[in-house]
Amino acid sequence: MHDKRLDKLGNWLESFFGHQNFALTRASNDASFRRYFRVQHQQETTIAMDAPPSKESTASFIKIAKLLNRHNIHAPKIISLDLKQGFLLLEDLGSTTFLQALNGNFNLDLYKIAIDELIKIQIINTQNLALKKYDKQLLNAEMQLLIDWYLPKTLSNTHLQNLQAIFRLLSDNALSSKQVFVHRDYHCRNLMTLKNNDLAVIDFQDALIGSNTYDLCSLLKDAYFELKPFELQILLQYYYDQVNIDSEFSEFEKQFELMGLQRHLKILGIFKRLSIRNNKHQYLNDLPLVKKYAQQTANKYPEFAPLKEILCLV
Q1: Are 236 and 253 in contact (CB under 8 A)?
Q2: Per residue in 42-97, pLDDT tens?
Q3: In the chain, where do the E strands start and end?
Q4: Cα R_g (the chain), whole angstroms
Q5: Which end is more exposed in the chain, N or C (fewer Cβ atoms within 10 Å of the end residue's Cβ)?
């Protein structure tokens, strides 16, 4: 099928570069409708984002990118834009993600850098920011994806009632924690490693205000890279000490794990939806780890005993 969007992107770039030659190669896709292309122009490269206006908000990306850069957090700088067509030309942050830098091995120093960067993000003053809040309605809508897409359609009324009670526990947990700027997908595929051990962040356009443990869960209970229990404990303690959490560590740890459970129930639904609705079947390979995270938390806390039974239905 002919790619009309790619033609339009090429025309837009031609108007930007004038008559100078450039070459486009696919850089990456993500779980949304956005696409990224690397643009080679003379001896330099940039990244072109194709974000169809009917599907994606480039305005949100621009707003958050500028906000992060103002706070000394490395987000891609915007070189040119066309909001009407949904095209952005961005700084090229290279092609080495945090996941690739790990190369299958735990790297304590790299994780500490990522946590330090996260703390910088979390101290952004959110009082005057026009950002949505991770409120009860949104938290519950995310968890509903588990029922709509992941679990069998033949759930009993008892199962559904138990799930609603679990959803209330998890949303109450999220809302009772400190509310900060939340990247929302702060994981190993959305962090870019740069020179001098610097990190840059991408895929931040859905940022909002929510729990201080949400992004920490994204990083330490990553759907794409599993930490060993003792590695996770070291890093959780590191964050706890750096931020000077004013509650007992055991209380903070439980809040972290319940926030993670909310996120993992959502991801189970999203990954299944990506396969069924969007034909992005590669995310099915990541379902077992996400399910494992959810089962571990359900096994640890008695109040989630019904969830253990429900997750066994799939």
Answers
A1: yes
A2: 889 999 999 998 888 889 999 999 999 999 999 999 999 999 999 999 999 999 99
A3: 23-29, 35-41, 44-50, 78-82, 87-91, 179-182, 191-193, 199-201, 208-211
A4: 20
A5: N
- CA quadruple 252, 253, 255, 259: dihedral positive or negative? positive
CA distance 3 to 192: 29
CA-wise closest residue to 88 among 52, 133, 43, 141: 52
Tokens of 192: 């870019």
The DSSP 8-state label assigned to residue 169 in this structure reads H
The two tokens of residue 119 are 């703390």
Cα angle vertex 60, ends 115, 132, to 5°? 75
| Six-digit token string for 280 | 């992005």
C-alpha of 274 from chain center: 15
Q: Within 13 Å, how many C-alpha atoms sit on residue 239's CB side? A: 25
pTM score of the predicted model: 0.93
pLDDT in tens, 252-263: 999 999 999 999
Ranges of residues in the chain with a pLDDT under 50 are none
Nearest to 186 by CA among 237, 111, 236: 111
Contacts of 169 (CB under 8 A, 6+ apart): 258, 303, 304
For residue 21, report the phi and psi dihedrals to the nearest 5 degrees.
Answer: -75, 145
Q: Which amino acid is at 30?
A: D
The token pair that represents 300 in the structure block: 């640890």
Structure tokens at 263: 């996120």
Identify which of 305, 134, 309, 304 has the alpha carbon closest to the alpha carbon of residue 208.
Answer: 134
The answer to whether 205 and 230 have CB atoms below 8 angstroms apart is no
3-state secondary structure of 111: helix
